[in-house]
Amino acid sequence: MRNDDTLMHVRGTSQFVDDIPVPGCLHAVLFTSPVAKGRIRSLDISKAVTAPGVAAVYTHKDVPGLNQVGHVFKDQPLLAVDAVEYIGQPIALVIADTRRNAKKALALIKADIEKLEPMLDPRAAAAAGQLHGKKRVQVHGDPDAAFAKCKHIFEGRLASGAQEHFYFETQRALAVPGEHDTIKVYASAQSPGAFHHHLAEVLGIPMHKVELDIRRLGGGFGGKESTAVWIVAPAMAAFLLKRPVKLLLERNEDIATTGKRHAYEYDYKLGLDAEGNILAYDITLYQHAGACADISTAVLGRSFLHVCGSYRIPNSRVTGLSCRTNIPPNNAFRGFGVPQGTFAIEAAITRAAGVLGVKPEELKRRNLLRDGDKLPYGVVLSDVNAARCWETLEEKAGIKVRRAAVEAYNKAHTDKKRGLAVVPVCFGISFAQTALNQASSLVHIYMDGSVAVSTGAVEMGQGVNAKLRIVAARTLGVPLERVRVETTNTSRIPNASPTSASTGADLNGMATKYACERLRARLIAFAAGALKAEPAAVEIKDGEVLISGKPAGFGWNKLAKDAQWARVDLGEHAFYATPNLHYDMEKEQGRPFAYYAYGASLTEVLLDAVRGTYTIEAVDIVQDVGESLSPAIDRGQIEGAVIQGMGWATMEQLRYAPDGRVLTGVSAYKVPDIKFLPAHFDVTLLKDSTNPYAVCNSKAVGEPPFVHGIGAYLALADALSAARADRDLPSLPITPEKAFMYLHGGGK
Amino acid sequence: MTSFILNEKPIRTEERPGMTLLEFIRGVACLSGTKDACHEGECGACTVLLGSRQSDGTMAYKACASCLTALGDADGRHVVTVEGLGGEPLTLAQRLIVEHSASQCGFCTPGIVLSLTGFALGSATLAYDDAVTALDGNICRCTGYASIRNAAKALCAALEGIDKAPDRRLAALISSGVVPAYFTDIAARLAGLGAAPVPCGKNTVTVAGGTDLFVQKPEQLLESELCFLSRRGDLDYVREDKEFLRVGGAATIEDFRNSPEVRRHFPALAADLLLHSSAILRNKATLAGNIVNASPIGDAAIILLALDARLVITGEGGRKREVPLDKFFLGYKKTDLACGELVSEIMVPLPPSGARYHFEKVSNRTTLDIAAVNSALLLTAGPDGAVKDLRVSAGGVGPVPMLLPGLDKLNGRKPDAAFFNDLSKAALAAAAPIDDIRGSAEYKRLLLGQLMLAHGRALAPVEAA
After folding, report:
1. What residues of A are labeled active site?
2. Which letter does DSSP use for residue A84 in this model?
3. Which of A292, A333, A721, B50 has its CA 20 to 30 Å from the CA of residue A273?
4. Using CA atoms, how far apart are residues A403 and A407, in angstroms rounded to an integer?
5. Residue B446 and residue B439: Cα distance in Å, rounded?
6. Is A132 within a domain?
7. What number of other Cβ atoms are within 10 A of residue B300's Cβ?
8. Which residues of A touch B438 (CB under 8 A)?
9. Which fold has domain B1-193?
10. pLDDT at residue B195 above 80?
11. So what's the pLDDT on residue B86?
């Protein structure tokens, strides 16, 4: 079973927002702040208003409802009022007959902005107390006493960089006004419920007058989860002008003004006993959040819960700070803080191994999580698959043999060095915010037997619709082609949680399963009555009605038709809330996750020590996906996530000018291309894994494999250390420039 | 008036020739399968096939970025978008992408379909490595490429043994389901179009490949009168003439790279120029255009500087003059090309016996990226092994692509490790890079020094990999 949409994708017939034909559509562009921090003294839009083709120019004064799109906190105006906090912050909205005319009018807006000194350094922001939310501290065991007993203590600083989502379809939305002051919005968006709410709030109308419809996204990766600006702005214009309005960001605008994966800085202290057992870990996370909180505090929370990676750490102190700086507010990106949280412990253990002269994989294997281990937030683990993944990897990829080969190669070569790293993954599944772990599904069986499923899940290439079809078809007992998944629409599914945290199929699949089970029960009862059979003897399989396993003489389509005529309800709405989740933010204790997805990977690189360049030569991955609903889809998710993670760890680097401007446009911000893919790239789904906590015993797969990308960093660090071991390793990502300067640069 | 065939349909349009083909396809022709995602040829989502009728009556198709192709450039040609492949039944490339799950969100997929189809139509070898190379400009953010690689492999397997003779190839591909049957008549239909190119004049902007120009000033080009060198068949050649390789001003990087003359005399260039840009850009960008663009890190300029190329510049009334390439760059983005003049030919001296050439480029991403530093070397040694002549170019370390000065003093020496150490010192002394988006000044300076050592390693490998 493959992604439902592929047959259309290859024909070019899949419809994305910009492909919807809308006669008479106007085009909106944003006038944004050219300075990272400033006070708006005056704003003159008079020349723009009268420019050719311009329909309107709006400022904060024109917002009909609340001028606010803050996601977690109300700290983000849709259009700036008197202060600007980052370059790219929207100040005014220009609407014209063509995009070209709207852009020309932008140049006619005059803003007099007093420049103020921007804050661009997260550590300095933390020192100045410029934080989003509160500083979070969690103490597990007795870290101070434990450090006192440690034989070896390693301390230092680390950093990991930002990452641009580079979804192919940039931020965009189309708004079409309707009767009775209603509005329908087509958007490339991951959060139907939240954006629905933002739309109503900004327009100043009740939510039942707003319909948000989402067919599919040309990539999301978290970047379309929380920031509502580009959806709400065209909707406001359409609402005021009573004309359809479209807004879409050009690539470089999108890179320059939208949120990214957060860069982090870290202070760490890791303590080991004489045998190499981790006794204590102290970690401070400085999250570079940007000007508004957006969803940063939630991302930090997830980092916070994953600082131990896949390791048993009996004593820990975790401090988390979401630092307020004058860059565009950062947001969700595949992994949602987990890669950043995990990176620090991986780097710390690797450094410890280097100093102690032991192989990092020995230290990691020794401390790997197992049943009965207690995580810092109080969960005692069971069904831990960390060791099984590791042993499967050893079996298929030969960790020890490969390590020996790397060592032998490095002894024999000076111009080139090999490096290797094993990364275990342990990723908690559920929204860490307990309230979001809910979903509903609306299933219709029509009188011709065709089935339509609506949920709050958003299709963005991850194949959630295909998985929902499988769940519905399996549960109802009908062939796959009888089931269609509808658009994600707020008029059919209210208050839907975002499609993120890898939970799309888990939550919406479970709700769909419930709805289909009830429909099936009703149809079986009806069929039993009609056939004068015991309900227990009736089943529906592959579109046929069976009695005691034998065909009853009529199929699904007739069953639907007859049931409808007999006044059986063929529509069902079901709701699912993940049970037994709770978390106490004061005590930093609870059970935030329903279960954990495990994995292990081996990454091998070849470093050219003359040029500072490198090739990722081989990656072997073992990932625990439970009982996969679709191995083809799950493999695709794993492959895509790993390469994206490797991009974060190697070539993907955002650069900012001293004034806070993003310098890396599309010609300089490089993401992996086909030639970056390692010659050897092998994915194994862990055998005999099951999972009672998600639909059909499957496990979430969207984000966990991203963490394997850290292996590219660690393997490069390994190769760099083989070339010279007398200096501090570069921060993540290790670009060719950083590798080169480590090898050949001056200084320490 | 621009006349061409879009998929199966004849088009005659009065839209401005400087409109991008992408804007025409999506905005005017209302075909939404071609996606708009970067406007700089960096992603490949807008890939289309541009087919030209050849003098022998066959068609040559090339995958191009429609965001950097002018509508006027399509005049007299066949433009194929994903809609032009039919879809029912699926073509071979489409079917293999489906079978290998080589599509997730789908935004890049039409471009990948077109690049694979262009490979099937145009590749001389139909080998797997070439299929991957044909996809080197198609970024996919979802799949991680493993499934795309598998689809490409399956395509090569399916096309193995197919008749590649130019006059029979199209029929073979049609029967293999690579393209629909209507392709058969396209060459004849194009012959009847009677497209008439605009002559270059004083008030026209000359567009070579357009792949830099349309990144730099698309709005200005929309308003301008354009003259397209792609229509100058007389400038589209690569030929050997006595002691020179002569490359016409309209020859594309890819045609140059694949020409038998280049393969014979400069075999290393076939691989070196893969680092220049992606297939969808190499198919459009010209060697001459890359030089006239005068980027301080232009790969073509760096390579040709070392090879001691000369430019033939044609001015008004056909007046010709010759300029050595190392005298052509006058300052940052400033060249010795007057208004109304055109680089009509590049003359590359054939390498003397005993000459060895090598190219080095380091960029953040190995392929489809601009160099931090690049350098080419041409070293000629006498029968005694001593260096007679040494030319080393360096890009990214000054305002123009430069030749390292003062290398004469290295002549007469054996090109051993000490020789390259001294070359490295000379390079470090000559380098004057600045901090920019491609790297810090210190990085680029030190890197240039290391690349001199890399030249040495390449000429005399000291250790096997």
Report:
1. 703
2. E
3. A721
4. 6
5. 11
6. no
7. 26
8. 668
9. Ubiquitin-like (UB roll) (3.10.20)
10. no
11. 79
Mutate to test the interface with B, among A10, A164, A680 (most CBs of B within 10 A): A10
**CA angle (A703 as vertex; A301, A390 as ends), nearest 5:** 100
* Domain assignment of residue A736, yes or no: yes
CB B56 within 8 A of CB A680: no
CATH number of the domain at A95, please: 3.90.1170.50
Kindly report the nearest CA distance between residue A481 and chain B, in angstroms: 17
In a domain, A148, yes or no: no
Answer for the pair A555, A543: CB distance below 8 angstroms, yes or no.
yes
| Nearest CA among B266, B258, B348 for reference residue B312 | B348
**CB-side neighbour CA atoms (13 Å) of A267:** 10
Q: For position B464, what pLDDT does the model report?
A: 37
User: Does the pLDDT of residue A638 top 90, yes or no?
Assistant: yes
At A426, which CATH number?
3.30.365.10
Cβ contact (<8 Å) for B447 and A639? Answer: no
Q: How far is the C-alpha of B369 from the C-alpha of B363, rounded, in Å?
A: 6
* Residue B209, pLDDT score: 96
Q: Which CATH architecture fits B233-459?
A: 2-Layer Sandwich (3.30)
The first and second tokens of residue B351, run together, are 């390498």
Cα B71 to Cα A48, B21, B28, B77, B207, distances in angstroms: 30, 5, 11, 11, 12
Distance of alpha carbon A84 from alpha carbon A123, whole angstroms: 22
Q: Per-residue pLDDT tens for A355-403? A: 999 999 999 999 999 999 999 999 999 999 999 999 999 999 999 999 9
Cα separation, B395 vs B295, whole angstroms: 9
CA distance A122 to A409: 41
Strands (E), A434-478: 438-445, 451-455
Provide the residue type at B2 as one letter.
T
Of B105, B367, B369, the CB nearest to A217: B105
Confidence (pLDDT) at B463 = 42
Structural domain of A409: 264-432+586-744
Helices within A566-691 (DSSP H only): 631-649
Residue with structure tokens 């056909």? B318
User: Which pTM was predicted?
Assistant: 0.97
Q: Which of B70, B62, B163 is nearest to B122 (CA)?
A: B62
Do the domain assignments include residue A147? no
Strand pairing partners for A90?
Answer: A32
Mean pLDDT over residues A558-573, rounded?
Answer: 98
Does ipTM exceed 0.95? yes
What are the extents of the domains in chain B?
1-193, 233-459
Q: Are residues A442 and A425 in the same domain?
A: no
H or E stretch at A357: none
Cross-strand pairs, A155:
A269
With tokens 């191995």, the residue in question is A631
Q: A269 and A310 share a domain?
A: yes
Dihedral over Cα of B133, B135, B136, B141: its sign: negative
